[in-house]
Amino acid sequence: MSQLFTGRRAAAALVTAALLVPLTACGGKDDAKKDEGATKSGSAAKADLTVLAASSLTDVFKKAGAVYEKEHPGTKVNFSFAGSQELAAQVKNGAPADALVTADTKTMDGLKADAAKPTVIAKNRLVIVTGAGNPKKIAHLKDLADSKLKVVLAASQVPVGRYSKQVLDAQKLTVKPVSQEPNVRAVLSKVELGEADAGLVYKTDAATAPDKVAAVAIPDAQNAVASYPAATLKSSHHSAAAAAFVTWLSTPEAQKILQQAGFQKP
């Protein structure tokens, strides 16, 4: 009798154990999935990002990137600066990158197949830039039409070049530049080096060289507003991390950095 009871108890124990095995296995799979999800989430937050950005963002983005990296350990933000049209060409040619920020909406609109929906993160305006101390006494846009002045402008394919043409055309001014540059920093450099008497650049670019150039304000009614859209690229291998950085650019902290550099609110 005792042996029979013992046998039945052992059998029951085996059945119970057999029933528990699948449950344990299921629990193990669920835990594994949770762990896997956490790993993916963690890796998404930590990445080596490449951000293509308009030349006029060079100084402020270097500062913003350093702040972002400090607050997001494990994430590295690498910037590649150039004219917006050059950056767009790089994207279309398959250059490896995670996000793009241009100096106009037109360029970004041409990349709908390559980029996610953009968000405007800042705005800017043009100024006339001259040599330090304004030796040519330039005071108005109309002064740029003086044939005695060596004026340099950005090429019309570049956002700042289009904005420049827009403001000059609106005032019915004919300006014959001594050269047309590929980006706004090249225009600024020509004036800094004394190779040109004046040029049209963004307000924020002139502010980066206060000891080398003088900025002459253009009235709002005669000016153009440049918008800076930012978007993640569909080809990115770090889409979550790229999206996090693009989102951060609209936060109060990032906006403060942009506005301290002279950019306007979006």
From TrEMBL:
Binding site for molybdate: 56, 84, 184, 202
GO biological process: molybdate ion transport
Alphabetical keyword list: Metal-binding, Molybdenum, Signal
Position of the signal peptide: 1-27
GO MF, any single term: metal ion binding
Coiled-coil segments: none
Family membership: Belongs to the bacterial solute-binding protein ModA family.
Protein name per UniProt: Molybdate ABC transporter substrate-binding protein
Source species of the chain: Streptomyces auratus AGR0001
Encoding gene, per UniProt annotation: modA
